[in-house]
Design brief:
The complex is a heterodimer of chains A (128) and B (392).
Chain A lengths: L7 E2 L4 E6 L2 E6 L1 H7 L2 E5 L6 E2 L4 E7 L2 E6 L2 E8 L2 H4 L2 H5 L7 E9 L5 H14 L1
Antiparallel strand pairs in A: 1-2, 2-3, 3-9, 4-6, 5-8, 6-7, 8-9
Chain B lengths: L4 E2 L5 H5 L15 E2 L3 H6 L3 E5 L2 E6 L4 H10 L2 E4 L4 E6 L3 H8 L12 E7 L5 E11 L2 E6 L4 H11 L5 E4 L4 E7 L3 H6 L14 E7 L2 E6 L8 E7 L3 H12 L5 E3 L1 H10 L34 H6 L5 E8 L10 E4 L2 E12 L4 E9 L8 E6 L2 E8 L10
Parallel strand pairs in B: 2-4, 5-15
Antiparallel strand pairs in B: 3-4, 5-11, 6-9, 6-10, 7-8, 8-9, 11-14, 12-13, 13-14, 16-19, 16-21, 17-18, 17-20, 18-19, 20-21
The chains are: A alpha+beta (128), B alpha+beta (392).
Chain lengths: 128, 392
C-alpha cells in the first residue's frame, strides 16, 4: 500500500493535496484496492459546493458502490472528466487520478498524516 | 468502519441466511468454511460471508480479470457451499414429479435435469438440478442458502416409499469453466470417460486419481465441468486442476466473477430473479414447468393466472450509471417493475440488468428508465441472454 508523505488523509479513505486555499481530492491506494476494479464514477459539476464530511461523488466497482466524502468545505473548480470513460485510472494510479480540484477552502474534516493514516488502516484491517 | 458496501448477489446472504450484519458486512460465527477455505486464504482470496459460508469474492487478479479468464481461457471455482441431497426408493420418481415442476418420467441414467421447486402459491421454494444415477436413484444439487429449507420441504412432502437424505457435508464441489476446460481436464483424467453432452454426468469419474462425479454443467454460460468429490479430497483436486491448467491461463475465480458471468449469460439466481413470491413462469422458466403433467405442487395456482402477470426482461443501461438489484423500472412516468440483478458486464463492456416487469408493458428495443439512487437513468429492453458462448 502506497501512502505519499506530502498528502493528508481521511478516515473514509480520501486523500487531499492542499495548496493554499485550493486542493486536489482523490481515493487512496487502500480504497481502490478494497473496492476492486472501478467501472463507474459519478462526479459533481464545476461550481458545485462541497462540504467537509459530506458525500460529493460516488464510485462503483463491479461489486461495490461507495460514496466519496469531501475532506474540506469548498467549491469545485475542476472535474477530472477523463475518469468518466476511464475509471480504471483510479486503480492504476490512485494518487495521480484526482477526482476534483476545489478552491476557496473554508473548513476541513479531521485530517491525518501519512503515518497516522497507515496506522488507521492497520487497525481497520485488524478489526476484520 | 469502511464506508463502501458490497452489493448485488452478495446481499443474498442478508436475505436468505441472516448471517451478515448489514452495517458492517461481517459474518457471524455461524458462517461455515468449505474444505478449501485455507487454500483460498493462502492464495490471497478476499473472503466474504455468503449464504452462510465464508468464500472468496475475488482473488488478487480482480473480478474483471477472473471473468475474462472464463470467457477466453478457463477459471476454477469453489462451489462446495452448494447443497446435495439424495432421493432413493421405489416411489422416488413419482415424488420428483409431484414436488418439482419439470418431468422426470423419461430420463436416461447419467442425465441431469433442471427444475424449479414450487410452493402451493406457485412461488419458488428453490431451483435445483436433479441427476439420475439409476432407476429411482437421484442426486439433487440445491442452492447453499436453501439447503436446510429444501431438505425439510422434501421430508414434509414425500409420499410412499422414498428416502431423502442431506449429504451436503460429505461433498466438495469444484467448477472448471471456460473454452480450455476439456484440454485442461484431459491432462489429468482419461478423456474417454468425460461426459459428452451438456447436462450429463459420469458418476464413477477419476480426476488426478481422485474419485468424483464429473458433470457437464456450470453457471457461467461457458463450456465447462463441475466435479463432486469427497470433502477430504477437495484440496487435492483443486491443486491438481490448477496445476494442469497453469499454461492455459487457468486462474481461481471468486463469487464476484461467478455472479457477473451468470448475469451476462442471463441465468436466474434464487433470491433475485425468483423467490417464494415469484412463479417460474414469470421468470421465463417455462421450459422446466410441465403444465401437462397431471399435478405438481403449485400447478393450480400457476394455471389460475395464465398468462402470468409479470415477465423477466433484459435491460442494457444506455445512460450514465450501473443498475443494481431492487431498483424501480419506469415507463412514461409509471413504475412497471423492478430490477432483480444488475452489474457492469465485463465481457460486453457495458452495464446490464434483469428486471421483473408487468407482462407486455415493454418490447425488445423499447426505452425505459431505471431509478438509480435517486437518478433516472435510460435503459433499453434487450433480448436475453446478453451473452451467448460460441458453440463448442
Amino acid at each position: 500500500m502506497k501512502t505519499p508523505e506530502e498528502l493528508k488523509y481521511t478516515k473514509s479513505h480520501e486523500w487531499i493535496r492542499i495548496d493554499g486555499d485550493s486542493a486536489e481530492i482523490g481515493l487512496t491506494d487502500y480504497a481502490q484496492s478494497e473496492l476492486g476494479d472501478l467501472v463507474f464514477v459519478n462526479l459533481p459539476e464545476e461550481g458545485d459546493a462541497v462540504t467537509a464530511g459530506k458525500t460529493f461523488a460516488d464510485v462503483e466497482s463491479v461489486k461495490t458502490v461507495s460514496d466519496v466524502f469531501s475532506p474540506v468545505t469548498a467549491v469545485v473548480a475542476e472535474v477530472n472528466s477523463e475518469l468518466a470513460d476511464a475509471p480504471e485510472k483510479i486503480n492504476e494510479d490512485p494518487y495521480g487520478a484526482w477526482l476534483v480540484k476545489v478552491s476557496g477552502i473554508t473548513g476541513t474534516e479531521e485530517l491525518m498524516s501519512a503515518a497516522e493514516y497507515e496506522a488507521f488502516v492497520a487497525s481497520e484491517k485488524a478489526e476484520h | 468502519m469502511t464506508r463502501w458496501r458490497i452489493i448485488a448477489a452478495l446481499s443474498v446472504c442478508c436475505r436468505a441466511g441472516h448471517t451478515t450484519d448489514p452495517e458492517t458486512g461481517k459474518g457471524n460465527c455461524m458462517d461455515k468454511k468449505t474444505p478449501l477455505y485455507e487454500t483460498h486464504v493462502a492464495a490471497g482470496g478476499k473472503i466474504v460471508p455468503f449464504a452462510g459460508w465464508l468464500l472468496p469474492v475475488q482473488y488478487g487478479t480482480g473480478v474483471i480479470a477472473e471473468h475474462m479468464a472464463v470467457r477466453r481461457a478457463c477459471g476454477l471455482f469453489d462451489v462446495s457451499h452448494m447443497g446435495e441431497l439424495t432421493l432413493k426408493g421405489p416411489d422416488a420418481t413419482a415424488n420428483l414429479n409431484r414436488i418439482l415442476t419439470n418431468d422426470y418420467t423419461k430420463m436416461d441414467d447419467g442425465r441431469a435435469r433442471y427444475s424449479p421447486m414450487c410452493n402451493g402459491q406457485g412461488g419458488c421454494v428453490d431451483d435445483l438440478i436433479v441427476y439420475k444415477k439409476g432407476d429411482n436413484d437421484y442426486f439433487i444439487v440445491v442452492n447453499a442458502a436453501n439447503t436446510d429449507k429444501d431438505f425439510a420441504w422434501f421430508l414434509a412432502h414425500l409420499q410412499g416409499d422414498a428416502v431423502c437424505e442431506n449429504v451436503s457435508e460429505q461433498y466438495g464441489q469444484i467448477a472448471l469453466q471456460g473454452p480450455k476446460a476439456a484440454d485442461i481436464l484431459a491432462r489429468i483424467a482419461d478423456a474417454s470417460t468425460f461426459p459428452k453432452k451438456y447436462y450429463t454426468a459420469v458418476f464413477d469419474g477419476i480426476v488426478a486419481g481422485i474419485p468424483c462425479i464429473i458433470s457437464r454443467t456450470g453457471y457461467t454460460g461457458e463450456f465447462g465441468y463441475e466435479f463432486y468429490c469427497a470433502a477430504g479430497d477437495a484440496v487435492a483436486l483443486w491443486d491438481a486442476l490448477l496445476k494442469a491448467g497453469k499454461g492455459d491461463g487457468l486462474i481461481p475465480c471468486g463469487l464476484g466473477a461467478r455472479d457477473t458471468l451468470r448475469l451476462e449469460a442471463a441465468m436466474p439466481l434464487y433470491g433475485h430473479e425468483m423467490d417464494d413470491t415469484v412463479s417460474p413462469l414469470e421468470t421465463g422458466l417455462d421450459f422446466a414447468v410441465k403444465l401437462e403433467k397431471p399435478d405438481f405442487i403449485g400447478k393450480a395456482a400457476m394455471t389460475s393466472v395464465l398468462p402470468p402477470a409479470r415477465e423477466r426482461v433484459g435491460l442494457r443501461v444506455t445512460g450514465r450509471g450501473i443498475a443494481r438489484e431492487e431498483q424501480d423500472v419506469i415507463l412514461n412516468g409509471e413504475k412497471i417493475g423492478h430490477t432483480t440483478s444488475g452489474t457492469f458486464a465485463p465481457f460486453l463492456g457495458y452495464p446490464v440488468a434483469m428486471a421483473l416487469v408487468r407482462k407486455g408493458a415493454v418490447k425488445t428495443g423499447g426505452k425505459v428508465t431505471v431509478s438509480i439512487r435517486g437518478r433516472e437513468v435510460e435503459a433499453e429492453v434487450t433480448e436475453l441472454p446478453f451473452y451467448k458462448a460460441a458453440r463448442h
